[in-house]
Amino acid sequence: KPRDVERRFCMSEMLLNRHKKKPFLHCIVTGDEKWIHYDNPKRQRSYVKPGQPAKSTPKPNIHGLKVMLCIWWDQKGVLYYELLKSGQTITGELYRQQLIRLKQAIAEKRPEWTTRHEKLIFHHDNARPHVAVPVKNYLENAGWEILPHPP
User: Fold this and answer.
1) DSSP characters over 88-119
2) Which of 19, 88, 126, 150 satisfies CB 3.0 to 4.6 Å to 7 for a cystine?
3) Where does the chain cross the membrane (predicted)?
4) 105: nearest Cα among 139, 82, 75
C-alpha cells in the first residue's frame, strides 16, 4: 500500500541519517525463522548377479520432513540458533525463552558487549510471536534498543 511504502521510506531515511551521525551497524543483532525441508533416505545396498537388472529405488517423498530453524546473528556471524522439533512452531512464550538463551549466547560469544557503552540494537520482524506481551515485557527489561520494523 502507498502508506506502507511511505513508512518504509521514512524509516530508511531516518536510519541513514542516524548512521551518518554515528555509525551503529556494528551494534545490530538480528534474527529470523525459516522452515527447513529435508529428506534422509535410508538406502540399502543390493547385490545382483552379473547381467541382472538392479532393483529400482522409489523416488523420495516430495513432501518430506521439515523443521523450523530459528537463528540470530550479528556482523561477525551466527550468535545462536535452534532447530525446533518436527511440526513445532513459534509461540510468544517459546520466543521469549529463545531470547533469554540468545542473551546468554551473546554474553559467551561477545563478552566485549558487557564493557561497551553502546546498547545492543535488536532487530526482528513484526510476526505475532515477536510482538506478544511476554516478549515485549522481556525486551523492555533486557536493556536492548529495538530497531523499528515498518510493515
Assistant:
1) ----HHHHHHHHHHHHHHHHHH-GGGGT-SSP
2) 150
3) none
4) 82
DSSP state of 84: P
* Model confidence pLDDT, tens digit, residues 81-112: 999 988 788 999 999 999 999 999 999 999 88
Q: Which domains does the chain have, with CATH numbers?
A: 2-32+73-146 (3.30.420.10)
